[in-house]
Design a protein that fits this description.
Oligomer: heterotrimer
Chains: A mainly alpha (about 230), B alpha/beta (about 240), C mainly alpha (about 250)
Number of strands of chain C: 0
Radius of gyration of chain C: 22 Å
Structural class of chain C: mainly alpha
Largest interface: A-C, 50 and 44 residues
CATH topology of chain A: MetI-like fold
Number of domains of chain A: 1
Protein name (chain A): ABC transporter permease
GO biological process, one term (chain A): amino acid transport
Family (chain A): Belongs to the binding-protein-dependent transport system permease family. HisMQ subfamily.
Radius of gyration of chain A: 22 Å
CATH architecture of chain A: Orthogonal Bundle
CATH class of chain C: Mainly Alpha
Largest sheet of chain A: none
Largest sheet of chain C: none
Shape of chain A: flat
Helix content of chain A: over 70%
CATH superfamily of chain C: MetI-like
Pfam families (chain A): BPD_transp_1 (PF00528)
Number of helices of chain C: 10
CATH topology of chain C: MetI-like fold
Order of helices and strands of chain A: HHHHHHHHH
Strand content of chain C: under 5%
Subcellular location (chain A): Cell inner membrane; Cell membrane
Amino acid sequence: MGYEFDFSAVLTDQYIGWLLSGIRITLMLSAGAWLLSFAVGTALAVLRATNFKPAVWLVATFVEIHQNIPLLVQVLFWYFAMPEILPEAWRDWLNQNNSEFILAMIAIAMCHAAYISEALRSGLRAVPVTQYEAGRSFGFSYLQTMSYIVVPQALRLSIPPLVNHSLLLFKNTSIAMAIGVHELTYQTRQIDSDTFRTFEIFLVATILYILMSFVIMAAGNLAERRFGMGAR
Amino acid sequence: MISFENVNKWYGPELQVLNDVTAEVNKGEVVVLCGPSGSGKTTLIRTINRLEPINSGKITVNGQETHAKSANVNRLRREIGFVFQQFNLFPHMSVMDNITLAPRKLKGMSRPEAEEKALKLLARVGLEEKAGAYPSQLSGGQSQRVAIARSLAMDPPIILFDEPTSALDPEMVGEVLAVIKGLAHTGITMMCVTHEMGFARDVADRVWFLDKGVLLEDAKPGEFFSNPKHPRAQRFLADLRH
Amino acid sequence: MWEIIQNNWTLLLVGQYPNGPLGGLVATLLLAMAGLALAFPVAITIAVARISPYRPIRLVAAGIVHVVRGMPFLMVLFWSYFALPVLIGRPLSGFWTLVGALVLYESAYLAEVIRAGIQALPKGQEEAARSLGFGYFRTLFLVILPQALYNSLPALIGQFVSLIKETSLGYVISVNEFTYAAGQLNSQLLVQPVEVFSILAITYFIVCFTLTQSARWLEQRIARSRQGGPGGRAAQTLPNPLATEPMP
């Protein structure tokens, strides 16, 4: 190709500083959105499990909306449209408090909460009804049967999709660059336009992403081995 | 100990699975339920601990009407062991935890006490060495023996078996039947749905024959096998001999 | 909101076309279709390689899948943007840059869908074909893949929905597609972001939801036809014995 790679141009103290701060924001955004999405996703799954018609319908609507609209559009909606809808006091507070980061975090978390609630739900449905019956036949109450027998199995069955969605959530934080959050992809582009060393800096950023993804995958494998259905 | 009075059950308006069943099981007795498939044997045994609801009639266990609205079904079920055709061991727990779960959580037994008891039960079914194993590491016969031990852990005065050997490979049927035989006539009241007629002949105090939801025969095994009264029971036995 | 649609529906539907490049919703759908069509053969190749009897082939394919799975789509898109023109030696339009990224990214995910479909088939299918005397590849292409692809049709539609959603990221590199058109509209109108982004979101929702629902419908149909098929005994469904205590 005749292209001469020159990593020294992009790996100066200044740019390493930019990269590190990008990684920091990416990780903060991932962690915040992950916690929020698991909290909301679990609440949605519980709500749906009540079999109370309005609750089921509400959760199903939430899930369909968030699964059938591109995440970028959801992020743009939260960034451009939501502040117009929110009360003025909230808007002011957002503007003073790093609104891009917070809105991106909420958008990503809400979208993935839908997927997480579905993963938990399919885990619950995958536990055979005979397990429930066996629990009840000992004289365990509904709640006891759920908490000792059904839910522990459902959680174990849900580990693979939950890990998968955690990885997707992490990767999707890069979308926050579209509204100016200074995460890793954003910083990569900044360094690119500063140095014109496109291939070098994108190679570095790509490797960083892949390394972090591999850590998540490895943690997932560990969780599957430790707690999964086949765990010994 | 267990009595059925005019028990009826329908699936939908058309299909009547239990038709006016009236019968009695005495304390310590072993009753074998047999009949062609679809005759309602499994349904009947599942109504005893209310895994199946009934449409009319009365089932009384130990003087308590089980299908009464006021009945405490959870308390009742503690007194009735149930062994399933498909074992239904809890796959996320070790054999030991499968057996100790109910005594610990429902009877408030301490863990060491429950485990000591579990080991005795495992010895009784010949599986002491499997305490730490998980259900997926067991053969079918071993799984069913663990399931029996699990039911016994609650010291139930009654134990119900729903085709306990039907899901097993032929070579494993014997080991499970041997365990069930060992339980018979030890004071525990037993009902067993099975196609193993040899078992019925050797162990049962009485054999019930069900067909199309009707209890057609209630006889001592000798009588039932040598001289069945009802023509459908005669045909059933004749078919078995072929 | 109706006024905005009335005044700008051509921009949202086809972009500047025919006076400029094709854009809008039509471009989005074309992008997704082109991406799927081109990713498909690549995905089949990777899937077959993933279950190859030869370990080195398996390892290479697994490596590709894992690396792509470890990359955000945006990173793949930027690679396509910078590296593809260098690789093929001439500039690429935004449309084909995005298609290139979709193919790279989706091939890995599609391959896993297809592999799951292959591995879900009963082992007896392969054994039956092999014992009739078919070789490895003919067994694969005549017996295994047709069944596996048919069975994974619903998942493939799901993947098409993912592609449609991913095309929205063309916005970041200014590819003329639906989200980009809405972005342009938003900066033209300035004061009506709620309306503009609602139109955008609702339209995506209608398109994707229709596809998702048809995938579900198809899934049920396939499940039913499988139960009725030879050898597949219909799963016994007990009348719910716990009718009074519903299972969540």
